[in-house]
Amino acid sequence: MTAAGRPRAVLVTGGAGFIGSNLVRWILEQDASVRVVNFDLLTYAGNLESVEDVEQRFGPEGERRYRFVHGDIRDFSQVAAALRLEGGADAVLHLAAESHVDRSIMGPGIFIDTNVRGTLVLLEACRAELDARPRPFRFVHVSTDEVYGSLGPADPPFTETTALAPNSPYSASKAGSDLLVRSYIGTFGFPAIITRCSNNYGPYQFPANLIPLMITRAVQDQPLPVYGDGMNVRDWLYVADHAEALWTVLLRGRIGSVYNIGGENQVPNLEMVRRLLALLGKPESLITFVKDRPGHDRRYAMDTGLIQAELGWRPRHDFVNGLEETVHWYLANESWWRRVLSDAYGIAEMYLS
Given this model, what pLDDT does residue 105 score? Predict the structure, then answer.
């Protein structure tokens, strides 16, 4: 850390994924003094094309502030080596995770292995590194609003003290990793903070998630599969706003705290699909209702009062404009999402089954 309390070198796990790639890009563009190590296993949702511009501008042939490491958070030696790069990381932003709910229903084991055991290995590697080379250090564990479970139509939004009640193997694995981080704070005095975000949207999102799935299928005039009655409500957060929130928490958040990060945009899935069709000039006849997902949470809503009051963060992007920007990005980057889909093992088709 610098004298001003800013990190010199940051390890971002999962930095080739949707949120991770946007976060890495945002940090490097915002802070000219920081170095970033991007540690990613490149599973189905990780894609080096998502950080190709970052590599060119900030990598070895550019400003030399960015380094990619192909690695697994479940491998202690790989994590330990990554923590020592660039003079030694003095901050970790932990985003690496299996994160697709449908995949967790089909195969829960990898979610527990990656999200819980992987987080354990990462925590232990950080502890070992700090024992060997003590220094000011911060660890931000990035989680999800799904750990809180489901809200009824009139229930107040989730707060940081809402009891955890996960309803899918994915959310259960994230709740488990949250509690593991909490235990390291309490037991070892580990300098960690937990964040929980609502649904992100924006560029470079894997096309099996709702918004890019609907955009890419509509562009191809394919049916748009909507679960159940389409009235499941989600809060939507533009990914650049999430990146700013995570950096703010890393710099100024209270060690041991939990911060909710939300976009203040509660939208039923069916309304979201209709908005996308309108922006694309496509007919609503493309909408196809399919059997609901098992354990499908009805509504999420986030109370972000704590992060606003303590750290002064609030989302900058208007939802209407943010959605338009997202649609335009996918239309302008069709070659990117077509290549991603071609290597995606047919995951998008799960929505039709």
Answer: 86
For 267-318, what is each residue's pLDDT tens digit?
A: 999 999 999 999 999 999 999 999 998 889 999 999 999 999 999 999 999 9
Q: Quick check: is 238 catalytic?
A: no
Nearest to 22 by CA among 245, 193, 249: 245
Instruction: Based on the residue annotation, tell me whether 324 is a catalytic residue of this protein.
Output: no
| Sole residue written with tokens 């975000």 | 197
Which entry of 86, 98, 129, 145 is annotated as an active-site residue?
145
One-character DSSP codes across 48-80: GGGGHHHHHHHSTTTTS-EEEEE--TT-HHHHH
Side-chain half-sphere CA neighbours of 310 within 13 A: 17
**Under 8 Å between Cβ of 84 and 76:** no
Q: Which residue has the tokens 């250090």?
A: 137
Whether the CB-CB separation of 23 and 12 falls below 8 Å is answered with yes
Q: Could you tell me the two tokens for 244?
A: 């700013």
Query: Is the distance from CB of 230 to CB of 274 less than 8 angstroms?
Result: no
Catalytic status, residue 146: yes
Annotated active-site residue in 148, 170, 227, 330: 170
Nearest to 149 by CA among 325, 297, 348, 306: 297
Residue ranges of the chain whose pLDDT lies below 50:
345-353
Say which of 40, 86, 129, 146 is annotated catalytic.
146
Work out whether the CA dihedral 95, 273, 212, 224 comes out positive or negative: positive
